[in-house]
Design brief:
The chain is of the alpha/beta class. It has helices at residues 28-41, 65-73, 86-96, 118-124, 157-163, 177-187, 210-217, and strands at residues 54-59, 77-82, 111-114, 130-136, 164-174, 193-194, 223-229. It has 2 domains: 30-49 and 61-120, no CATH class; 126-235, Vaccinia Virus protein VP39 (Rossmann fold, 3-Layer(aba) Sandwich). Helices cover 29% and strands 18% of the residues.
Length: 235
């Protein structure tokens, strides 16, 4: 699958949502994971999902613990995990790739990675191909001048809706009060999605994340939404 260039994106969609791709200097093992393991497990087409009970996408998987929990708990589901931060990619891959086997490890049958902007993937996927989308504790971009960089954005709603099947779930969790209010402001009026009031305790079946734990330890209160895709995909 080729990536859409920014010039192909709809008007009004910012060309970049994320911040840095790399933090501190990578260790040799991490360099090997990025150079050898990522190309082998990178998502290219939907062939890996043939026979799966559902196709899910996680946007911004961070350290990967949520992704790995989903794989363990739902072995029949095909999962695409998207992350641009290199240390996050390495954190997940360290758990599934033996040291020294970066170029030879058995590729998990139901997992593929997307190490680029998730919006490119959403635009390239066939319409109504996803059964579930996860957005767990995204960067809130709390300053108002950075609101255009939030993944939950009015211009993003039709892009997300196009990729989701009618009745599919978009699960969102955030501990940031600004982002929590923003989710309600952007999604609640939309005819593309519907949801009950957010839960204030992590619902059953939602694997915990390190970001959630840090938020709770710091005294912040996460909120959890299940937004359901309405109707038929837009033309």
């Amino acid at each position: 699958m080729s990536e859409d260039s920014p010039s192909d994106w709809p008007d009004g969609v910012p060309h970049r949502l994320y911040g840095r791709r790399r933090g501190h200097k990578l260790r040799p093992r991490q360099e090997r994971l990025l150079a050898e393991a990522v190309p082998r497990i990178r998502f290219t087409d939907l062939g890996f999902a043939l026979g799966a009970s559902a196709l899910w996408l996680e946007v911004g998987f961070g350290g990967g613990e949520h992704t790995l929990a989903l794989l363990r708990e739902h072995p029949a589901v095909a999962l695409i995990a998207s992350e641009v931060y290199e240390h996050g990619l390495c954190s997940l891959l360290t758990e599934i790739v033996p040291d020294g086997a970066e170029a030879t490890f058995p590729i998990p049958g139901r997992l593929r990675l997307w190490p680029s902007d998730a919006r490119e993937l959403l635009l390239a996927l066939p319409e109504a191909s996803l059964d579930r989308l996860y957005l767990m504790f995204p960067d809130p971009w709390p300053k108002s001048r950075h609101a255009k960089r939030r993944f939950v954005h009015p211009e993003m709603l039709p892009i997300v809706a196009r990729a989701l099947k009618p009745g599919a779930q978009w699960r969102i969790a955030s501990d940031d009060p600004t982002y929590q209010a923003w989710v309600e402001e952007v999604l609640r009026p939309s005819a593309l999605f519907r949801a009950d009031a957010p839960a204030e305790e992590r619902p059953e079946g939602w694997p915990p994340t390190r970001y959630e734990a840090k938020a709770i330890a710091a005294g912040r209160k996460p909120m959890y939404w299940v937004w359901t895709r309405n109707g038929a995909p837009p033309p």
